[in-house]
Structure formats: C-alpha cells, structure tokens
Amino acid sequence: MIFYNHLILVPWIAFVISVFIKAFVSIVKEWKINVSKALGSWWMPSAHTAVSVSLTTAIAIKYWIWSDLFAMAMSFTIIIVYDAINVRFEAWLHASALNKYIWENKFKERLWHLPSEAFAWAVLGILVAIWLYYI
User: Fold this and answer.
1) What residue ranges in 6-112 does DSSP mark as E strands?
2) For residue 90, what are the domain limits?
3) What is the SS3 assignment for 65-87?
4) How far apart are CA 70 and CA 37, in angstroms?
5) pTM for the full predicted model
6) Percent helix, strand and coil across the chain, each rounded to 5?
7) pLDDT in tens, the chain (135 residues)
C-alpha cells in the first residue's frame, strides 16, 4: 500500500539508490568518499534519468499508459533524457573549447551522459518502480 499512498517515494528512492551507486563507484575508483561526485553530474548513473523514468513507470503502473497523467510524465521524461544526452553534450563542447582558449580549466567539462548510461539508469528507474509496487 505504500506505493499507492505515497507515489512520490518512488523517484526519491531511485535518486537515493543512484547517489549510493555513484558514491560506491567513487570509493572503488579513488579509495575515498567523494560527496561532490556522488551528488554531481558525472558518469553513471544518470540520477535525473532514473528519477524521471521511475516516476513515469510508477504513474504507468498506477494510472495505466492511456491516462493524461502518464502522457505528461512521459513528455517530461523524454525532455530530461534528451537533455542528459544531447544538450549537456553541447555544453561540454563549449566548456572544453573555452578551457582550451583561456588555457585554464575553469569550466566543468564532463556534464553529459552516453546513451548507454541513460538507458542503463532508465532501467534502474523502471526496476525501482516495479519493486516498490510489489512490496
């Protein structure tokens, strides 16, 4: 019943899982906890993709895919995933060009996600929503 009464918990749990996975990867790679990497935009998982897809999946489960609410959630999810892959890639191109031009690394370059990264964490979002539906 938690799922039906508290649908907002689904994206929050997806976000927390994503942050813990980022923290774990940071610990494995650097042998220390890096909070800025765990909460920042870098590598996997794409936390914003996992959050939006988990909420869209939860809405699909609760209200079905032909509801207006699902159509709105899906529209926003498509925009978020597009931004994670394409718009942030363009921002990376600009940041790297500016860093080369001014010969300093003032601008953060790794902002974007590969399509495979966004897909992997879209799957995480789907699995979190389904898991929470059944507990």
Assistant:
1) none
2) 2-134
3) CCCHHHHHHHHHHHHHHHHHHHH
4) 32
5) 0.77
6) 75, 0, 25
7) 566 678 889 999 998 888 888 778 777 777 767 666 656 655 555 788 889 999 999 999 999 999 999 999 999 999 988 887 777 677 777 777 777 777 776 666 555 566 777 787 788 889 988 888 887
